[in-house]
Amino acid sequence: MQKPPISRYPIPDINTLPEDIRTRILQVQEKAGFIPNVFLAFTHRPAEFRAFFDYHDALMEKDSGLSLAEREMIVVATSGANDCQYCVVAHGAVLRIRARNPLIADQVAINYRKADISPRERAMLEFALKVCLRAQEITEEDYQALYPHGFSDEDIWDIAAITSFFGLSNRMVNFMSMRANDEFYLMGRLPKGAN
Amino acid sequence: MQKPPISRYPIPDINTLPEDIRTRILQVQEKAGFIPNVFLAFTHRPAEFRAFFDYHDALMEKDSGLSLAEREMIVVATSGANDCQYCVVAHGAVLRIRARNPLIADQVAINYRKADISPRERAMLEFALKVCLRAQEITEEDYQALYPHGFSDEDIWDIAAITSFFGLSNRMVNFMSMRANDEFYLMGRLPKGAN
Amino acid sequence: MQKPPISRYPIPDINTLPEDIRTRILQVQEKAGFIPNVFLAFTHRPAEFRAFFDYHDALMEKDSGLSLAEREMIVVATSGANDCQYCVVAHGAVLRIRARNPLIADQVAINYRKADISPRERAMLEFALKVCLRAQEITEEDYQALYPHGFSDEDIWDIAAITSFFGLSNRMVNFMSMRANDEFYLMGRLPKGAN
Amino acid sequence: MQKPPISRYPIPDINTLPEDIRTRILQVQEKAGFIPNVFLAFTHRPAEFRAFFDYHDALMEKDSGLSLAEREMIVVATSGANDCQYCVVAHGAVLRIRARNPLIADQVAINYRKADISPRERAMLEFALKVCLRAQEITEEDYQALYPHGFSDEDIWDIAAITSFFGLSNRMVNFMSMRANDEFYLMGRLPKGAN
Amino acid sequence: MQKPPISRYPIPDINTLPEDIRTRILQVQEKAGFIPNVFLAFTHRPAEFRAFFDYHDALMEKDSGLSLAEREMIVVATSGANDCQYCVVAHGAVLRIRARNPLIADQVAINYRKADISPRERAMLEFALKVCLRAQEITEEDYQALYPHGFSDEDIWDIAAITSFFGLSNRMVNFMSMRANDEFYLMGRLPKGAN
Amino acid sequence: MQKPPISRYPIPDINTLPEDIRTRILQVQEKAGFIPNVFLAFTHRPAEFRAFFDYHDALMEKDSGLSLAEREMIVVATSGANDCQYCVVAHGAVLRIRARNPLIADQVAINYRKADISPRERAMLEFALKVCLRAQEITEEDYQALYPHGFSDEDIWDIAAITSFFGLSNRMVNFMSMRANDEFYLMGRLPKGAN
User: Least packed by Cβ within 10 Å: which of B94, C10, D146, F71?
Assistant: First the structure.
């Protein structure tokens, strides 16, 4: 079978892109060794590209009371609930690397209740899943359940904002049938130095 | 009963905000006559503020095959499905004004199938609701159902992107219990010149 | 767009109606200033008309431990859950007037958890929504949750009966595409004396 | 185990009831040989008793394009979907008798798609279940699916109204834990003359 | 109406069946007085026949901390939730006999929360229904809720295994439209000696 | 974090097991290089062990109109819908090997609609998912949708039976928190000869 396209929408030649977008993509390519398809897929709409990645970076690359692994765990669990292939596969790779754990991403994506996670992580994911699936039912009690695990109000905002942002991403991915790069599937699964 | 706060999170004094954010808010205030609470609520996180409103403007203030009223209709219908008070009330006001129709927002928010809308608008909202609630099930057939109504692929991206962006917004609003300004409730309900 | 009919079914000329039904309708018209469409729509079936409004009056016009505003609040919240345009719009108008609060109806219809309501009202609506959506799961614990808020067993019957009756109404409205009168949309939204 | 009460609410002595209600109950007792508990349970509220049974009779005892068996089939199928013990058991008995079929009620209550019914009955129950569970989604197409089976618009009103009325009944039954009379369980299961 | 077939798939002549299967069927016939259709329907696949009934017997015919009636109650309640006509009707008959109670099966199949059952039985059915409908959400708390009612870990395995096995059975029945024998409908409904 | 146990229930010493079970396990170990935990977890109940694996082999190791890869695809897709970690991880490994495709398992587990599969495979999975989640709604039309893709009635039985059997397995896994062996996570992901 021929490999399906990256997205249902056309992808412009990278050399025709606005300079800031082109630079951003090349920086990612240099760091990751390849261009994650989400960067290419969003070039179809430069203004949305900028806002999307600015939002992403504001949440995922700043200092936070949530560790980098915890943030990826939220992405993987909620994207699993939204059946989003790109985000589970791509952020599953990042989670494996960040958590230095080759099993954790599959466990969290399929059923976080049965994953090798701490009570703090479990409380975090329960809140995230509620924001993901039933945000209208969030009440004060949901906040209260997080404080004993050491989450501050700022951390809770981060949980909710990461969930909400990737809810947007999940919908766009499914809408345009965005395809995950083959490279992601194996990343972080082998012992350091093995690949 | 004392009026609840605008958001569960603190709102900084507007004069302490970064200049670009302060300017953006004052421009909105000048245009609308008041500051919609979503602008104040997001000042708690300046980087997210910028990305959020850049994304919003990229979708809602550009030229598009969708009319301004159609875009607001998408917001109101999907925010209704997500039980989001702020977005239904605030964008319901904008929809009434854009469509010059004092009844349309309540109709669409409660049940778009029974609203005074055209077959084109109905097809648009069916697609939007599917992206909102079951994006993982979007298939080629859903696209095909839109073409006969005159929607291009770019228009369809707009429908999906507006739905996805406001899905993010709906979750943030419900998470922080963001409150709609009292002003919105009556806007667009009276004949021109009456209020 | 031409205005859709009041109902998918024919409406007889009011002068051809049985005398008791004609009188009842004229009394409502005198009190409200117009004839709410639900009265016209049910004239298609005189026997059902009589039973429907007798049931309505038995619940909504008697003395009760529930205030008039509380009863309307139940109607609006459960009709919102059932996506019933007529009942949300018409009883939303009555709720605004009874509660002397121009904002309450939209808040309750969209998401009662975020509305400006008291703990008593919130407990009442939780019970009502459970009767509305999952009556089969009602257990003794649901009753026990209401007693501390001052509800008697008779009050609880009222909550359940109002919810059940309007569940019938919501289904009939959606079945026949009953249309809300334009007048309802604005009622109770302006300060006394303003309209 | 001691037999639970007929209802969570008190049942007045039949001799203390208003004369019209007492007469109505005694007539049913004479015809059926016992008093169905729904009559007793509703005596707790005389005004609601009258409206409830007036509504019932307006739908179930009039001439209609629906046969008596078809009407009971609607009650059993929708009450099954609402998990209503009283209505499935009591109207299941009536359905067996009306249809002269000892198997039909259990089949329809559990899964009408696998019941020994005609295509006409199946189409009728599909419409009824949609009114029961998702009335907000009823559209013109649902009507069109019924016409080829010989249903008129008046018949369709009957389907919808019976479904809606018993939706009220189902909720009241579950709310007050109304108990079905032991007599109903066996009625219509034995060959004529056998019991 | 002609009686529909036992199954959508062909049933071989019993005399052509492998000897062990033929013997097993004849033994059941001798005991029950007729051949329950599930035995005939599975003869279409001898290897699956053997595994299916071995599994059944391993759970339903061994000694257990659960009484025979309790085990049937699990079958009836979970098969009710899965809308499985064969299992509700056939095991409803067995439950009536095992519990010496002509009412219990219909009560449990329709709504176990309103059935004449003990707190122990109710806790058992709550666990069973969760395994049936949301097994992925089972946590340690669900076990803890059963211990005070006298259930051991082995008993809990039995509840889960019976539920899981009949979940398989329910799906196969609905897939092939397996028909319940007419005999089951009346079994256990009459006083001993009456039929 | 210490590794959680294989199952919430005790696992007997393999040398104390009945000879046929011990032999079966050692054969699997010889073939796979390790003992899949499902074999160990079910030793807690020898009679259920035998029936479970007999059923499994009757479906998964026989000749069939479904290829070995197609059968594993059904397991992975339905186990994904049931959030079953063990089955998605273990059978995902087998699927990768059978289909000689390192990407297919993750794609199918997350969202089969977006996987690199043929129209035949897609039709097969739609039927499987319906048996998995809504078997009560299976009708003749669902069969008719499969015939044009070359599926015979026997093939369709296989699809339904595999789905139903793994529905049992999924529930038992989630009930006892059965853990997938670490070995499965990487199997079939590397080019032949690479690991």
Answer: C10
